[in-house]
Amino acid sequence: MTSDPITVLRYRLEWLVTRGVTAVVRLLPMSVVRTLGHGLGRTAYLIDGHRRRIALENLAFAFPGRPLDERKALTKAMFAHFGAVLLELIKFGTCSREQMLAAADIEGEDRLRQARRQGRGVLFFTGHFGYWEMQAIWHALTAEPISVLARPLDNPHLHAMLEHTRTSTGNAVIYRQGAVRRMLRELAAGRGVAVLIDQHLHTDAIYVGFFRRPAATTSALAALALRTGAPVIPVFALPMPHGRYRFIYEHPVDPPRADTPDAVREFTQRCTDVLEMYVRRHPELWMWMHRRWRDDRGSAIGDPGSEIGDRELETHELRTSGSPIPDPRSPNDV
Q1: Are 305 and 155 in contact (CB under 8 A)?
Q2: What single DSSP character describes residue 163?
Q3: Residue 233 contacts residue 123 (beta carbons within 8 Å)
Q4: Contact 300, 306 (CB under 8 A)
Q5: H or E, element range at 88
Q6: Which of 14, 36, 102, 261 is in the most buried spot, having the most CB atoms within 10 Å?
Q7: Would you say 72 and 55 are in contact if contact means Cβ atoms under 8 Å apart?
Q8: What is the mean pLDDT of each run of 10 residues along the chain (334 residues)?
């Protein structure tokens, strides 16, 4: 914990503000909380020029065929969404278990049951997309508690509040120190582990294509799956009208053949492809303000000499179990 008095005071003030917000949203229906969150996010869009510029730059690379006005509208919608995520997560943490269960519909429950029946544990993955925190909390009520890989918040008071919310339905949180060993134990016991795969990593990363650009991505998900044989389930949480949610369990991602060169990279690319598909479908729900691409590692994916070309991107199908999920990317977006 920092000893700088200014930082200590700031952390304390942030905690007090959050406590006050919690007291207010506890009394409001989720639909109203979502509307307030959209307003909060739109205000942040006007104020936070730094993150607004990052989002616009990322969108320009991801969707070069879209006009500037459309990218600005997407940026504003993204800020509005994450304002809602913040307030709704605070509100969700005050709900009873019955209220949590009533707040969502599920899609792909049969896929989840089939994965669990294999007895090897289940690896879930998603990104900073939609309402990922709520899905993990809700999952523990409908299936069984899981362990969630996370980074601690800098503010220790807010960290304690967030950890309380994350673990309120029985989930556990795994932090970096000793994470791999603990994840292996959880999978060996037949339990689930959830990982986010869309953050830039400085160490222990491999580069795969994400929106045609090399992105430093965790190798842990693929490495654990290949080592343990645990099924890998993409999960996504979408907003529904009236403050409700749709929690989706996608088809498991097929692992590469045992003799595939660089199997960890190939498996990571397959998982990243599924995340990209959902981001392309709902770009306003992903965190474009994050500096996902921080170095080029040569050329952009799709340029001469890169691993994936434009034609492959246009015809690519996401490789999952069962029927393949068609890639929704339009020619103007690639």
Answers
A1: no
A2: H
A3: yes
A4: yes
A5: helix 68-92
A6: 36
A7: no
A8: 85 97 98 98 98 97 96 98 98 97 97 96 98 98 95 95 97 92 96 96 89 95 96 98 98 92 96 98 98 68 35 36 40 41
